[in-house]
Amino acid sequence: MVQYNDIINKLKNILDDSDIKVNALMKDYTSFKVGGPADFMVTPRKNEQVKELIDLCRNNNIPYFVFGNGSNLIVRDGGFRGIIINLSELNEVYVEGEKIVAQSGVLLSSVSKTALKQSLKGLEFASGIPGSIGGAVAMNAGAYQGEISQVIESAVIVDKDGNIKKLSKDQLELSYRMSAILKYGYIVLEATFKLEKGDHDTIKDKMDDLNRRRREKQPLEYPSAGSTFKRPVGYFAGKLIQDSDLKGTTVGGAEVSTKHSGFIINKSNATAKDILELIEIVQKTVKKKFNVDLNTEVRIIGEEKNN
């Protein structure tokens, strides 16, 4: 990897100084509120800057990771060696008839509110999902029988060679918590959603109902990354965990939520190590009791902290 000062100078050729942070604590940027320092965090404000940053990292063998809202991410306590690309400032949304175009850093919940204002139906399921558009497309995010694949028309991406391309819905290869974005290492710049005209009050009532159900059933009062595990075929992760008598199990400040067993929460100043150890306990216990593999939905990056 190129030297520290060289990286700074190269970044300054692409971004304003104010959009470059050194040793940024990732716990300040993730919904789990854990994570050590990233060597560099950069915040591009234009699609072309994202392309230039990817080119910089690839041409100089610099590790990088791209994120939006940090709502589906665990960064280990040692932090991240390389460049974190924070897309939160790519946040423009506009409406074209029954379509909504949103940049990758826009919150999915904000796009659903835009749809409501325009009396467009189809995104009600997304009103309580905390992630950004980029992460939502990459993970084919969903809840309450709805998911991104049902409403997306296309996405503009940067491929691993730094080319900006527009992919159709079919080219996105969307499946349960998977997509071409994750499969091929693409980065989402923006997405277009095709919705339908509906009744404003009916759309609002559905959103209010789903958000009420979410508040009642999920431990939203604690930091977490939402559902920690993917749903195994033929099972529900939360029920497997509950039936394994793991509800309320703790490691340090991390806990299997007593409100919803599918959530691991940061109950009291947990470290990433606490959370990851608890994830491993859950996986091993469920495997032993039910012979079912629980795979994490949350993404895990970074290095362990040296004691």
Automatic annotation (TrEMBL):
Its cofactor is FAD. Residues 34-198 form the FAD-binding PCMH-type domain. Transmembrane segments: none annotated. Keywords: Cell cycle, Cell division, Cell shape, Cell wall biogenesis/degradation, Cytoplasm, FAD, Flavoprotein, NADP, Oxidoreductase, Peptidoglycan synthesis. The active site is at residues 177, 227, 297. One of its GO terms (molecular function) is UDP-N-acetylmuramate dehydrogenase activity. It is found in: Cytoplasm. Pathway: Cell wall biogenesis; peptidoglycan biosynthesis. Its EC number is 1.3.1.98. InterPro entries: FAD-bd_PCMH, FAD-bd_PCMH-like_sf, FAD-bd_PCMH_sub1, FAD-bd_PCMH_sub2, MurB, MurB_C, MurB_C_sf, Oxid_FAD_bind_N. It is an enzyme of class 1 (oxidoreductase). Pfam families: FAD_binding_4, MurB_C. It catalyses: UDP-N-acetyl-alpha-D-muramate + NADP(+) = UDP-N-acetyl-3-O-(1-carboxyvinyl)-alpha-D-glucosamine + NADPH + H(+). The keyword Cell wall biogenesis/degradation applies. PROSITE patterns: FAD_PCMH. It comes from the Bacteria. Cell wall formation. Belongs to the MurB family. This is UDP-N-acetylenolpyruvoylglucosamine reductase. It comes from Clostridium ganghwense. The gene is murB.
